[in-house]
Write a structure and sequence with these properties.
This protein is an alpha/beta fold. The chain has helices spanning about 10-25, 40-55, 70-75, 90-100, 110-125, 130-140, and strands at about 1-5, 30, 60-65, 80-85, 100-105. The chain has a five-stranded parallel beta sheet, with helices on both faces. It binds D-ribose.
């Protein structure tokens, strides 16, 4: 199950991503928001982060205007690794190396065509499982 969340700056792009997920027959849960009326992105980042940590969802996609505020918020949660990606190379690398569990996108940064390719790459790239990457991920959890 994929968790989706956005603010007003990411709402239009979220609709495009939902179209892609529907076409692929991929299940998702949309935690809002539901329009372009201004809202606070931390609300949606927290809902998506919690759904992953509880096991309700496996991965998440968060979208705000830049992808920055929503990813910073999600990354406050221990066990969340939210990666802000603007290209397919970083989307692939963050799955292979960081085992990122949330993809963050900027709805005012990437167009829908590129965003869908980034989502596709993120969802279809497994974690490498390499010892060095597992070791580095473990180190992220301590200050
Ligand atoms: C909202 O205007 C904007 O600040 C938000 O979508 C995001 O870009 C914050 O990081």
């Amino acid at each position: 199950m994929i968790a989706l969340g956005c603010d007003h700056g990411g709402y239009e792009l979220k609709l495009e991503i939902k179209k892609y997920l529907d076409e692929k027959g991929l299940e998702y849960k949309d935690f809002g928001c539901d329009s372009t009326v201004a809202v606070d992105y931390p609300v949606y980042a927290k809902k998506v982060a919690r759904s992953i940590l509880s096991g309700e969802c496996d991965k998440g996609i968060l979208i705000c205007g830049t992808g920055i505020g929503i990813s910073i918020t999600a990354n406050k949660f221990k066990g969340i690794r939210a990666a802000l990606c603007t290209d397919c190379f970083t989307a692939e690398a963050t799955r292979l190396h960081n085992d990122a569990n949330i993809l963050a996108l900027g709805g005012r940064v990437v167009g829908p065509g590129l965003a869908v390719k980034i989502v596709d790459t993120f969802l279809n790239t497994p974690f490498s499982g390499a010892d060095r990457h597992m070791n580095r991920i473990a180190q992220m959890e301590t200050e």
